[in-house]
Amino acid sequence: MKYDNSVFLGTKHAILAMKPGDSSGRGGSIVNISSICAMIAMQGAASYSAAKGAVRSMTKVAAVECGNLKYGIRVNSVHPGVILTEMVKAGMEDSVRQGIFKDVGEAQAVYEGLHPGGKMGEPVEIAKVVLYLASDASAYTTGAEFVIDGGITAQ
Fold first, then answer.
1. Catalytic residue among 48, 111, 132, 140
2. 48 labelled catalytic
3. With CB atoms 3.0 to 4.6 Å apart as the test, which of 2, 45, 53, 68 could cross-link to 38 if both were Cys?
4. CA–CA separation, 38 vs 48, rounded Å?
């Protein structure tokens, strides 16, 4: 998997557009997507974890800088756990090809077993938190991390 600097560039250019005196100039909300891999070790995910850890740290720095500069821009991060996305499905299939699991059903059962509730999350569960952070309902929230992982990191 290849990692790039898209979150950095997206945050940078959003701040430039949203800060007072620029194209939008009205402030607003930036929501960066990280991962629980920024917080806990997952075997075989060193580069992914490092990239997501960078998103986590950069988000906090941007939140502090935007606050100190009185830009009116809130910057927060969302840290999904194992969400049933195309990426996770591909990972399960890859695990089968590598011989880690006998089939996708076994892989899915193991992934679900990581969660105290016994199920993987759905993309809509992440979308609802992003919607909250993008809305005025979170007007006093900046520099925060929202972990949506079905309890994995609580164990």
1. 48
2. yes
3. 53
4. 8
Mean pLDDT of the chain: 93
Residue range 38-56, pLDDT digits in tens: 999 887 789 989 999 999 9
Q: Please, what sign has the CA dihedral across residues 113, 117, 121, 122?
A: positive
Task: Tell me the whole-structure pTM to 2 decimals.
Answer: 0.90
Q: What is the mean pLDDT of residues 91-105?
A: 95
